[in-house]
Amino acid sequence: MPAVETVRGPVDVAALGRTYMHEHVFCLSAEHVENYGAGDWWDEEEKVADAVAKLRELPARGITAIADPTVWGLGRYIPRIQRIAEQVPELNIIAATGIYTYNDLPFQFHYRGPGTLMDDGHDPMVGYFVRDLTQGIAGTGVKAAFLKCAMDAPGLTPGVERVLRAVAAAHRETGAPVTVHTESSIHAGRTVVEILGKEGVDLSKVVVGHAGDSNDLDYLMELADTGAILGMDRFGLDVINPTADRVRTVAALCERGYADRMVLSHDASCFIDWFGPDPATVPAFAPNWNYRHISDDVLPALREAGVPDGQIDQMLVANPRRYFTR
């Protein structure tokens, strides 16, 4: 079988086992930490130890791999992830490349690339993404295995569109699969699959992230009928869509024959600095937003809703394996 790159090196895709396809380890701005965190709310050793403890809960529940779509804009820092991965050898962590923005580009690309003051016919983003996928990330020796970008409530802004097209170009050059954060309330998945399809992306290698925030079966089936994979990947974020509704939607799609086009996850993290430095602020609005929720609560609920184990394995094992097989 082909290999997939992980933080500890290439692994046979057949050995991935049960895989959560959208889990972060840290969402953490380096500028935030360096300017305001050190000596205050950020203790590197403490946070690494906490992450190791939380991630060990996954293999204890039979989950042996996670795809971590933390890229530029979310605080990707591979040396920290390498330290953690070495201490959780039962879990494979798969890294990504790309840029995460809802609006504008990072200023490093604002004047460089298509349509800018320094337009030489190439987009430097594409070269960066390809380098991460083929040579490795920032001298760490770790290669990214998939591409990540986003389209949220602001819609297809010029910055978002440019990243989307750069991701498509990197996919065409490398064959790497793609995950796109989408905002379901505006049916952003439609725009994403339309543009990626026109850009020559193999839509069977595209996860429409956060599709599971929607319970609109017509919208979800429309996306799946393009060949794209539905990211039912925010279990525990009940503030957006309650678990019971998410379960009913997945069960309904399984009944309609779409188990081969869904993957499951939480979009959780060991630490995220979006909601303030105190990690206790997160459980206050999402008490089930953790790596345990699917195994402990969602899978039993899916079985009770009539989803057979074969379809559960399809979503957790076969679909991730197919996605990462080039």
UniProtKB/TrEMBL annotation:
SUPFAM superfamilies given in the database record: Metallo-dependent hydrolases (SSF51556)
- Keyword Hydrolase in record: yes
- Pfam families the UniProt entry points to: PTE
Q: Does the keyword Hydrolase apply?
A: yes
- UniProt entry keywords in alphabetical sequence: Hydrolase, Metal-binding
In terms of domain of life, where is this protein from? Bacteria
Note the InterPro entries from the entry: Metal_Hydrolase, Phosphotriesterase
Q: Which residues carry this modification: N6-carboxylysine?
A: 148
Q: Which family does it belong to?
A: Belongs to the metallo-dependent hydrolases superfamily. Phosphotriesterase family.
**UniProt name for this protein:** Phosphotriesterase
